[in-house]
Amino acid sequence: GAVVSQHPSRVICKSGTSVKIECRSLDFQATTMFWYRQFPKQSLMLMATSNEGSKATYEQGVEKDKFLINHASLTLSTLTVTSAHPEDSSFYICSARDNTRDTQYFGPGTRLTVL
Amino acid sequence: QKEVEQNSGPLSVPEGAIASLNCTYSDRGSQSFFWYRQYSGKSPELIMSIYSNGDKEDGRFTAQLNKASQYVSLLIRDSQPSDSATYLCAVNRGGGADGLTFGKGTHLIIQP
Using the beta-carbon criterion (under 8 Å), do B100 and A44 form an inter-chain contact? Predict the structure, then answer.
C-alpha cells in the first residue's frame, strides 16, 4: 500500500527558532502534497497545497512567510515553521496524492511543541 | 466557505450492532467523499471513498452518498471495540489538486 513518512515525529523547540518537517512518499510519486494542522479536539485544517517544482498555494489566513513550503522532488515536501511561537504548537500532518489515483495518503504526523 | 458538518458525539453503540455516522456538506461542487478513522494522537487512516450516488460496500463498512441532499453516511456492521475512534468525513472537488475539507469528526465508542 501507499506509504507516507514524516520526520520528525515529535519536536520541542524554543520560541523564536525555526523547525523543518519533512514529508516523503515512499512507494509512489506525488506531484501534489498537502499540509494540514490539527489543534487539540479540532479537525484537520488545510494549510497549503504543495506542488512539485512550483510555489505552494496557501489557504486564507495562513502566512506564507511563516510557513515555508518546498517541494523539490516528486517524493519530498518540506514545511518550515519560522520564528515559532507557542501558538504554533500543533499536530502537523502531510498527505501525498498518488499521481495515479484520486486518493490522499496521510503521513503519521509531527507533533510540534513550542516553549 | 466550504463546510462539512458532523455530530461530534460521542456515539455509543453496543458491540455487534450497527454504527451509523452521518455527514453533510455545503459545497455543491464536491465530487469526492471520504471517510477517515483517527485514533487519538494518530493521523487519519482512509476507510472508504465514494464518488457516485448510492451505496458502496467494503467488508463491514458501507458508505452512502446522496448528492441531491448533500449527505454522506458510513455504516459499520458488527461493530467491534477496535472500531472505537473518531471518524472524519472529508470532501473535495476532485481533480487531485484540491485539498480535503474535513468535518470535526464523530467520536464513536463501541461498548463491549
Answer: yes
Q: Do A92 and A11 form a contact (C-beta atoms < 8 A)?
A: no
Return the closest-CA partner of residue A21 out of A83, A67, A62. A67
C-alpha cell at A33: 502534497
Contact across the interface for A43 and B88, Cβ inside 8 Å: yes
Contacts of A40 (CB under 8 A, 6+ apart): none
Q: Name the burial class of residue B25, with classes exposed (0-12), middle (13-18) and buried (19+) by CB atoms within 10 angstroms of its CB.
A: buried
Picking from A32, A49, A108, the nearest residue to B43 by CB comes out as A108
Cα distances (Å, whole numbers) of residue B92 to A47, B50, B99: 15, 11, 6
Residues of B in contact with A32 (CB under 8 A): 96-97
Given pLDDT bands bounded at 50, 70 and 90, which one contains residue A2?
confident
B95 touches chain A (CB under 8 A): yes
Question: What does the pLDDT read at residue A41?
Answer: 85
- pLDDT > 90: percent of chain B: 87
Residue B36 and residue A104: Cα distance in Å, rounded?
11
pLDDT of residue A87: 96
Does the structure show a pLDDT above 80 at B97? no
Region A44-71: what's the mean pLDDT? 93
CB contact at 8 A, A73 and A54: no
Is the Cβ–Cβ distance between A37 and B37 less than 8 Å? no
pLDDT surpassing 80 at residue B36: yes
